# Entry
Amino acid sequence: MSYNRIVRKTHPFPFRLVAVIAVFAALLSGCDNISSTVDVQDIVELRWQHDGGAIYGLIQKYTLTQYQTGPTAAYNLARFNSDGSLNKTISCDQSAVPDVSYSVFTTPDNSLVATQLGGDLYTINPSTNAYTKRYLQFHLYAVSPDLHYAIGSISPSNRTIRTVVVVDLQTGSAATRTVTSFDVSNLQQQPGLWLGNGQFALTLRDSAGSQVVIYDTTGTLRTTLGGASTAFHNAVYVASTNALYLRNQSGKTTDYSVDKVDLNTMARATVVPIDVESFDISADEGLLVYNHYDLNSDSTKTLAMYARNLHTGVEKQLTRDVLSLVALSPAADRVAYIHARDVNYNEVYTMTVTRP
# Structure
């Protein structure tokens, strides 16, 4: 049985692994009774360092011997080289567990990383491996690019009304300051996104469907975008043009096209008219890379990665060996993704990408 699949099943926003559902069901009965020793590695997040020199992610590694059962999901921060090879793993007093998302954020000078470990907010120095617990009982949604502000909730995930807090990470000590807090109804367990002008986006879902709500750091609601969500690795903000790219979700579970919203005029248009699993976009908005399930001649589906020129609409297939995720380098010259070496072992691949 794929222990990798068991771990990924606990992910808060599992990718729709249509092509492996039948295989997963067939192997499920033997998942706790392996007949040999296996090395298991699972990776659930990728984020490029701001200068493109490294990639940060979250990784879980262990070895199972005969008849052992795999552990629960618990991931450590990892730094990968720009070619995808593992540089080092950083262990703290807690591990990342399924919650809002497996998200990692870095400062522009690459000196600090913010993430959620256990149920708390941490900052980590990747050079020294030193870590600091910054906020207790914090469900992390978003962090500003300069790691000044972090957005999270201090409420249990099963509550209809949850308290959102904005905290200041640049207080100069571990005593993180709370900037403001406010209550939100029907807040979804999926990541948010930091925008420009001290604003951030969260996703709600009520009887009207999914909607993106945009607040500022005072807790004031600025605008609402219906039929949309800030799903994991499916929302990108471009600061230079104040444009928000997100996955459309107009009340239908099968509608996952990519929309662009001009936050200056609130004009909205579809830029990728098919279902995507994840996407990323270059800073100049010319190149969009995405994952999509291709239908094969035998009715199975294979997850493939494409590059699309947003100016001309021309696109090309990059690879069909994708397991999940897509992360475009800051220079938009390389793309990182998670590849399955086998059913038990994931690894990071990177490849050169050019605009079609």
Summary: DSSP finds two helices and 28 strands in the chain.
